[in-house]
Amino acid sequence: MRMVDIIEKKRDGGKLTKEEIEFFVNGYVRGDIPDYQASALLMAIYFRHMDYDETLNLTLAMENSGDKLDLSDINGIKVDKHSTGGVGDKTSLVLAPMVAALGGKVAKMSGRGLGHTGGTIDKLESIPGFNTSLSEEAFVKQVNDIGIAITGQTGNLAPADKKIYALRDVTATVENISLIASSIMSKKLASGADAIVLDVKTGSGAFMKNETDAVSLAKEMVRIGKGAGRNVTALITDMDQPLGYAVGNALEVIEAINTLKGEGPEDLTKLVLNLGTYMVLAARDDLDKETVRKELERVISDGSALDKMAEFVKAQGGDPDAVYNTDKLKISDTITEVCADSDGYIQSIQSELIGKSSMILGGGRAAKDDVIDLSVGVVLSKKIGDKVSKGDVIARIYCDNAEKTKEAETMIKDAYTFSREFVEKNVLIKGIVG
């Protein structure tokens, strides 16, 4: 088998076999296939596309290209959740303890943030003492003991995806549904969960700006998951404005904890109740949808989800008192108010600009090795549909660096668009697949 023949076949619109795809993936990981040939194949795939069989085989080949997490020693059905990324997306911090409080087994591997999207691991590290690096043995034991563990991704989990994604990033071949779906699902399958709930974001702060593309991606990922023998459901959700109000690591943890106390933003609360319903339904076959929803509301109202969060934090070396007293989480003492320049209603918010403003403050990474400041960020005061008068506070910046604050303030003002006419609030849940 020759790589040049595989490239030529896809270039001319042919369908690649399972063996040809495995030859490419394994050869590229080993270093036998050079970047220029891999780039040629990716470009051929970009223009000629892949059908379902090819996409599934590519996903499975990437899943099997390195280590896989063995969760067979965990009792019960293991559930995971994955978001395609957004601004202010702290859902995992709320969801995991809620689901675990109802007996679900949440075994989650998460990553760090890059660019304007935050990472769950970074956010958790803003809790004093929290350890995000668990051995596989400790990870499995913790899920069995308390129902929840979140750890950083292992270095050799789906290594083919890391190599192929890096190449796609510099060869303008990122925006292809098959390549995106196989990238996401190869990591999720290698992480070992039995059931996966996907939160596919769409809008100005999402990877998929167009709702039609988001639906196509969701359908493809659900098909891949089911083809691999997993229970997969996808929700299409709004990212035309940040989720909740807080954007920034410690600030988002505080908002997540407030949500577990029943004091969170309406959109974040609604989202975790919807995602949580499908996670619990996958984990427990003794409950129906309506009952699950009520039970999720109960674990918030009676404090059991908050207690589970504290138990989880303690198990991973963090200070559980920080869950009950968020003053222990370090946030910047310097707060700068951003005010509206005109009267009217908030018509739109460019989520990506809000995310980038937090990154400029030091709350995100422009490059993979950047050190971030967990204490900085932005807290919005007004969102789409809200009425404002000139001079009203629309956001607050948490940062003690005047130069960075000034740059972030300009970016936040640019993110907001105002209308004299009444503006409807956004629809949060746009669809469900699977």
From TrEMBL:
Alphabetically ordered keywords of this record: Glycosyltransferase, Metal-binding, Transferase
GO terms under cellular component = cytosol
A Pfam match is Glycos_transf_3
Required cofactors, per record?
K(+)
SUPFAM superfamilies recorded: Nucleoside phosphorylase/phosphoribosyltransferase catalytic domain, Nucleoside phosphorylase/phosphoribosyltransferase N-terminal domain, Pyrimidine nucleoside phosphorylase C-terminal domain
**What EC number(s) has UniProt assigned to this enzyme?**
2.4.2.2
The keyword Glycosyltransferase is annotated on this UniProt entry: yes
Q: Does the keyword Glycosyltransferase apply?
A: yes
Q: The Pyrimidine nucleoside phosphorylase C-terminal domain covers which part of the protein?
A: 345-419
Catalysed reactions, as listed in the record: thymidine + phosphate = 2-deoxy-alpha-D-ribose 1-phosphate + thymine; uridine + phosphate = alpha-D-ribose 1-phosphate + uracil; 2'-deoxyuridine + phosphate = 2-deoxy-alpha-D-ribose 1-phosphate + uracil
Q: Which GO terms describe its biological process?
A: pyrimidine nucleobase metabolic process; pyrimidine nucleoside metabolic process
Q: Write down the superkingdom of origin.
A: Bacteria
Q: Which GO terms describe its molecular function?
A: 1,4-alpha-oligoglucan phosphorylase activity; metal ion binding; thymidine phosphorylase activity
Gene3D superfamilies recorded: Nucleoside phosphorylase/phosphoribosyltransferase catalytic domain (3.40.1030.10), Pyrimidine nucleoside phosphorylase-like, C-terminal domain (3.90.1170.30), Transferase, Pyrimidine Nucleoside Phosphorylase, Chain C (1.20.970.10)
Function comment: Catalyzes phosphorolysis of the pyrimidine nucleosides uridine, thymidine and 2'-deoxyuridine with the formation of the corresponding pyrimidine base and ribose-1-phosphate.
Subunit structure of this chain's protein: Homodimer.
Q: Which family does it belong to?
A: Belongs to the thymidine/pyrimidine-nucleoside phosphorylase family.
Protein name (Swiss-Prot/TrEMBL): Pyrimidine-nucleoside phosphorylase
